[in-house]
Specification:
The chain contains 4 helices and 9 strands. By secondary structure, the protein is an alpha+beta fold. The protein has a domain of 93 residues. The protein has a 5-stranded mixed sheet with strand order 6-7-5-9-8. A 4-stranded mixed sheet has the order 3-2-1-4, with no helix packed on it. The termini are far apart.
């Protein structure tokens, strides 16, 4: 007979659903608005269609805005190689469209910063899944070599593509 053992830091508690320090652990009654236009209601963040915020509503920074303010990325994507140098504009457009499509499903997944260097570009994201998706889309479109490096800590996922 097999038994399941749950190991947690708190006795009598199951493993938390999310280990992300930027995600709120408790519920919030009512709607909370962020300056970026995201609204927290019904236990999730979503994008608000209208830009006008109702008066009297509570304001707080969403997890993505807090990550940006702390300069603590959840994902780091490195794109390098001679192919990237020759097709930089095309790959930039692919990255932009991938990030826009991902934001429709998850408003907390955003590109924080894009740093260009001699060898390529480094992109930091607020969501690990967005970093993985950017690497996967570039790989699917242009081939090359793609590597993912995960950590069991709070460290970001690293995605490296080269061709």
């Amino acid at each position: 007979m097999a038994t399941t053992i749950w190991k947690t830091e708190e006795k009598g508690q199951r493993t938390p659903r999310s280990l992300d320090a930027y995600q709120s652990k408790g519920g919030v009654g009512g709607a909370v608005h962020c300056e970026c236009g995201a609204v927290f209601s019904n236990k999730r963040w979503r994008l608000e269609k209208s830009s006008a915020q109702p008066k009297g509503e509570r304001r707080a920074l969403c997890p993505a805005c807090r990550r940006i303010a702390d300069r603590n990325p959840a994902g780091i994507v490195s794109l390098k190689g001679s192919f990237f140098a020759a097709h930089g504009v095309e790959i930039d457009n692919l990255i932009k469209h991938t990030a826009e499509a991902a934001a429709m499903r998850n408003p907390l997944g955003r590109i924080m910063d894009i740093n260009r260097g001699k060898e390529g570009v480094t992109i930091t994201t607020t969501d690990a899944k967005l970093a993985q998706k950017i690497g996967r889309e570039v790989f699917k479109s242009h081939g090359g070599e793609l590597h993912y490096i995960w950590s069991h800590d709070e460290n970001p996922v690293r995605v490296a593509w080269s061709r």
